Amino acid sequence: MRGRKGNAMSFLARGVLCIGVLVLSISSANAFCFKGVSRTVKIGPGSGASNVTGEFQTAVALRAKEVVLTFDDGPMPGPTDRILKVLDENCVKATFFVVGRMALAEPALTRRIRADGHTIAVHGHTHLNLLAMDHPAAVREIRAGYGAIQVALHGKQAAAFFRFPFLADNHGLQRYLVNQGISVFGGGKDLIDSDDWMDISSQDVAQRVMARLRSRGRGIILMHDIQPKTASALPHLLAALDKGGYKIVHMIPKAGVPDDLAINSYPRLPAPQADEADDAKIATLSAREKERAFSVENFIENVK
Ligand SMILES: [Zn+2]
């Protein structure tokens, strides 16, 4: 039987424990996390206003000094791993506009991006310019991108977010995407280009982003996670954003894409609950796609 003294002791012990946990959580937040911890915004095709390139493009209702981090063209072993580490250390979430073929080449890395809490969006299947093909072929390319990522994610769908390779879009393709419930992220007034694909240093990348933000006050920062330079620039950029009082917003979709959107010509689509062993099933495919994916990278290099 516990007396009054026992209860008092237990109350005191609980109090000490709670204060300990509180101190621990405050100190870990201060020690490791970006000060402008993000809010999450749900984005659907209806959230946008018109902008430069098309009436259907999505505009994110960012407040002053709010930014979104986005990374295109990956995943790529090395740079993507380093970027995930920096994001994790700073407790911030980003959106990765993944190329279908790259996802298929690196399925485990693609799943890690998702498991880390980031948004996986789509950036085509082969990174070809969709304006160089007819409408049905361009639609197949979009659907194949979703299909490839679904395979890499063991049956889970990518988010209803799409960014056109080279930001090359047209009214018909935008309309197609919006009819599927997909938000289109384009080259409008929201976009803050980091120029990380140009022949400039990682310090220049961070400085250019900050200069553009100073003049526009908010925006969606476009970077590339196939660039080692971007991984090196990211800690500098986050430090500069933090110092400048910016906050990072994480975008998530309002709703999923239609079940029949994703198409793929790949055999043995793993079930949604599949485990790592399923990668063995797509190992042959993955090896072939890895070769092709790296030629996508070469392709990107060639168009600089
Ligand atoms: Zn791209």
Set down the secondary structure blueprint.
Layout: H1 4-32, E1 40-43, E2 66-72, H2 79-89, E3 95-98, H3 100-105, H4 107-115, E4 119-122, H5 135-152, E5 161-162, H6 171-179, E6 183-184, E7 191-193, H7 202-216, E8 219-224, H8 228-243, E9 247-248, E10 250-253, H9 278-281, H10 283-302
Parallel strand pairs: 1-10, 2-3, 2-8, 2-9, 3-4, 5-6, 7-8
The structure holds zinc ion.
The name of the CATH topology of one domain is TIM Barrel
Percent helix: 40-55%
Distance between the termini: 78 Å
Q: How much β-strand is present in the residues?
A: 5-15%
Which runs of at least 5 residues are low in confidence (pLDDT < 50)? 1-6, 16-31, 48-53, 267-275, 299-304
SS-derived structural category = alpha/beta
CATH architecture of one domain: Alpha-Beta Barrel
Walk me through the structure.
The structure is a single chain. By secondary structure, this protein is an alpha/beta fold. It has a domain at 56-186 and 247-302: Glycoside hydrolase/deacetylase (TIM Barrel, Alpha-Beta Barrel), CATH 3.20.20.370. Helices cover 45% and strands 12% of the residues. It has helices at residues 4-32, 79-89, 100-105, 107-115, 135-152, 171-179, 202-216, 228-243, 278-281, 283-302; strands spanning 40-43, 66-72, 95-98, 119-122, 161-162, 183-184, 191-193, 219-224, 247-248, 250-253. α2 (79-89) links the parallel β2 (66-72) and β3 (95-98). α2 (79-89) packs parallel to α8 and α7 packs across α8. The longest helix has 29 residues, at 4-32. The chain is globular. 42% of the residues are buried. Mean pLDDT is 80; it is low at 1-6, 16-31, 48-53, 267-275 and 299-304. Zinc ion binds at residues 72-73, 123, 127, 165.
